[in-house]
Design goal:
Blueprint: H1 2-15, E1 21-22, E2 35-37, E3 42-44, E4 50-54, E5 60-65, E6 69-75, H2 82-89, E7 95-102, E8 105-114, E9 117-128, E10 131-139, H3 142-152, E11 156-157
Antiparallel strand pairs: 1-4, 2-3, 3-11, 4-5, 5-6, 6-10, 7-8, 8-9, 9-10
Length: about 160
């Protein structure tokens, strides 16, 4: 299931299509303010202009934009510890693994090199108002992956 989600996010990042709602304002690398995620009752600060659509899999949203590529914010259907996520990441022969505990969850980033070149993975789990959420991306751009990581850490009730 995690492989399918990562594949869909990677493909969407390359295509950057299929979104339905354009955020007003934005541009550049500054956030134009919180972006609403109505299906989740959350907001997130994403740099630049983004489009918000339905998640490819699960309950949530796919966000696309020049600064972040494609990213997904969804309800985490199954609980997962940081150690379990690191174990799952082993199937990708990860390099530069960085795992951080957050006040309300954790973040995991790593990269690898595949047939299409460099891949950058971001997975953040957050517990907000008693509910678990995951914020993820897989893509070929290091700066976009860093922007997604920073954005995921801004998720809050909204």
């Amino acid at each position: 299931m995690i492989r399918a989600s990562i594949l869909f996010i990677a493909l969407a990042s390359l295509a950057a299509t299929g979104c339905s709602k354009k955020k007003e304002g934005g541009g550049g690398s500054e956030s134009a303010g919180p972006t609403k995620l109505p299906k989740l009752g959350l907001v997130i600060n994403v740099p630049g202009e983004v489009e918000v659509g339905d998640a490819v899999m699960g309950t949530g949203h796919m966000l696309t934009g020049a600064e972040v590529g494609a990213m997904s914010v969804e309800v985490a259907e199954k609980p997962q510890t940081l150690e379990e996520a690191k174990s799952d990441a082993d199937m990708y022969s990860p390099k530069n693994v960085k795992a951080d505990k957050l006040a309300d969850g954790w973040s995991l980033t790593f990269d690898n090199t595949g047939g299409a070149g460099a891949n950058y993975f971001v997975e953040v789990r957050r517990e907000i108002d008693g509910k678990a959420y995951k914020c993820t991306t897989t893509q070929g751009d290091k700066d976009r992956a860093a922007a997604v990581l920073a954005a995921c850490k801004t998720l809050k009730k909204g």
